[in-house]
Design brief:
Blueprint (H helix, E strand, L loop, with lengths): L1 E3 L6 E4 L4 E2 L1 E2 L4 E3 L13 E4 L2 E4 L4 H6 L9 E3 L2 H17 L13 E3 L11
Antiparallel strand pairs: 1-5, 2-3, 2-6, 4-5, 6-7, 8-9
Length: 121
C-alpha cells in the first residue's frame, strides 16, 4: 500500500484494524500487508483522522458511498487516463529514447461525510 501525503502526520489503512503506514523522505506513506487471498479488497486511508478511499482502487471508490459514514473519494477520468496511456506508449514506440515523465489529468473530488461535509438536505 502506498499513498502520497507529504504534509500528513498520521496515515493508516482503514478496514485492516487501523494499520499505520510509514512515511519515507519523499512524502510517500507505505505498508506491506499480507498474506492476502486472491481477489479485490475494499479499503481506505485515514489521513490525520479524515477518511479517504484509495483513488486507484475501483472497488474502494464504489464502496465509499455505501459505508455508514461515506468516504470522500477522487473520481478518476478513466477514459482520459486510457487515452493518455495509449498516446504515451505510441510516442515512446516512435522515440524510445524519450525520458520518463509524469502525466497529470484533472479529477473530480467527491466530498462525502468522512471529511466533515454535512449531508445535503
Amino acid at each position: 500500500m502506498r499513498l502520497y501525503a507529504p504534509q500528513a502526520r498520521d496515515v493508516q489503512v482503514i478496514e485492516r484494524g487501523g494499520q499505520p503506514l510509514t512515511k519515507d523522505n519523499d512524502g510517500v506513506w507505505q505498508a506491506t500487508l499480507g498474506p492476502l487471498d486472491r481477489g479485490s479488497y475494499c479499503y481506505g486511508f485515514s489521513v490525520d483522522g479524515a477518511a479517504f478511499s484509495d483513488p486507484r482502487n475501483v472497488e474502494t471508490v464504489k464502496y465509499g458511498s455505501l459505508l455508514s459514514v461515506p468516504l470522500t473519494t477522487i473520481h478518476q477520468p478513466c477514459a482520459e487516463m486510457g487515452a493518455a496511456a495509449i498516446s504515451t506508449m505510441l510516442e515512446r514506440v516512435r522515440n524510445p529514447t524519450l525520458p520518463a515523465r509524469d502525466s497529470l489529468l484533472n479529477f473530480r473530488l467527491v466530498v462525502r461525510e468522512s471529511s466533515g461535509a454535512r449531508k445535503a438536505r
